[in-house]
Amino acid sequence: MNFSELFKQSQFHCKFSPDGQYVVTCVSYKVIVRSVDTLQILRLYTCLDAVQNIEWSSDSAFLLCAMYKRGICQVWSVEHPDWTCKIDEGSAGLTHAQWSPDGRHVLTTASFNLRITVWSLVNKSISYIRYVKNSKDCLSFTDNGKYLALAESRKCRDCVSIFEVESWQLLKLFETDTEDLSGLKWSPDGRVICVWDHCLWYKLLIYTMDGRCLTTYKAYDWALGVKRVTWSPTSQFLAVGSYDQKVRILNHITWKSISEFSHISNIQSTNAVVYSESETKPSLPRTENTLIASPPIFSTQSKYEFLSPPIQIPSVHPDPEKPNPKIGVGWLEFSPDNKFLATIDDSMKTAVHIWSMLKLSLYVVLLQASPIKCARWDPHTSRLALCTGNDKLYLWSPSGSVSVQVPISATFHVHSLKWHPSAESLLLMSKDQMCICYLEKKERDKEIDN
User: Fold this and answer.
1) How far, CA to CA in Å, does 447 sit from each of 93, 264, 334?
2) What pLDDT is stored for residue 286 in this prediction?
């Protein structure tokens, strides 16, 4: 592995472009576009205020910079530096901004979810969508970008609206059998829409595009319900993470649960492999009377060791007096080849559970020394990268696990990471700096072969 030098960044606003040619970083109100290969500055933009969100268009031609405090967005062209666009929501305020799949329309959400405004960069037209519930989990585009599903609240009833993206015309509007719709998501093949209720009610529904309800799924009653939902890349499985520390796998034929994955802190016996991070401090050289201080970068070393049952995973008991309890499956994601599902339970933040979708059983547990800050799958194969807020990068694949020291600076602690679209490199971010980790070609080929 090779590591670049460090660059400044703010609030983790760093992203690779979809085509993989550029990497953008924000430093307060400045937006810097660099070449991924040389890291030379190609464009430098100055925004009207500190940037609070940044998004690439799908074709990597434009950058959307959102400044929520001012209620404005600025759009910059990478190919034509003199071209710029300013979007002002005015007194309505701004809480969210994103691109449409075609990369030529910007969707902005006004304060209190009053409306969603669709701004066209082609003909400067403006369209409004009202009655929206929220724009974070209640807005979903199909993978081919043709349709938009949006959760709405009309006359105190939850509804789903289907829009044709090219013309932004309403195609279908139907009510949902929910108490307080909390989120929706298209299946990757665009065949059905998954809708789930507020966490106070465990209810998940599958609708077709024309509004037919294929199934209603309830695992239990009178307890906190759905927390996270994700589709497998092939749309064959729907993984539902809940507050009871279980993931339920629904199949795409009968929409029934075919397996339950339980997260328990005390592992008595399992066929899974358990990797545990072991940290050691190197011994310090001595002179006749004193110890010679070692460089800070070598203060702690770590490696993975195999553990045999019984195994106790550190867990935190939630405070019943506080809202949003830290319990339940808060993160789950399928590998791009559909072979594995990785999950993290919020009460056991030091452990990643990796489940085999072929055997529908626990495959690997990665037990870290510190709580996990971020975990991401390789976009092409079964390789998981994660970080825990220290100076190390952790990688897992079916061939094994490795802990890699980031040999740049003793003060650079990795809090977030992102894969390059080609999986040839990783973007590593601390609280105020970033660098790029370049993977050697033989390492990538070895992972693909395995």
Assistant:
1) 47, 30, 17
2) 57
Pairing of strands 416-419, 425-429: antiparallel
Q: Looking only at Cα atoms, what is the longest distance across the chain?
A: 83
Which amino acid, 50?
A: A
Q: Which of 104, 8, 12 is nearest to 52 (CA)?
A: 12
Instruction: Compute the distance between CA of residue 373 and CA of residue 381 in angstroms, rounded to an integer.
Output: 22
At 446 the three-state DSSP class reads: helix
Strands 361-367 and 273-280, bridge-based pairing: parallel
Which is nearest to 181 in space by CA: 153, 141, 217, 223?
153
Which one, of 384, 439, 393, lies nearest residue 412 by Cα?
A: 393
Distances 200 to 179, 203, 246 between C-alpha atoms, Å = 9, 9, 16
CA 446 from chain centre, in angstroms, equals: 26
> Which bin fits 12, alpha (ψ -120 to 50), beta or left (φ > 0)?
left
Q: Are strands 416-419 and 400-405 parallel, antiparallel or unpaired?
A: unpaired
For residue 189 the two structure tokens come to 């093949």
Find the angle CA(160)-CA(166)-CA(168) to the nearest 5 degrees: 40
Block means of pLDDT (10 residues each) for the chain, 450 residues, are: 92 95 95 95 95 96 95 95 91 92 94 92 91 86 95 92 94 95 95 95 95 95 94 96 96 95 87 90 59 53 89 86 85 96 96 96 95 96 95 94 89 95 95 92 50
> Omega before 310 cis (within 30°)?
yes
pLDDT at 207: 97
Output the pLDDT for position 55.
96
Note the pLDDT of residue 283: 61
Q: Give the pairing type, strands 41-46 and 53-56.
A: unpaired
| CB neighbour class for 36 (10 Å; exposed up to 12, middle 13-18, buried from 19) | buried
Give the bridge partners for 25, in sequence order. 14, 32
Q: Which of 297, 418, 405, 367 is nearest to 16 (CA)?
A: 418
Helix/strand/coil percentages in the chain, nearest 5: 5, 50, 45
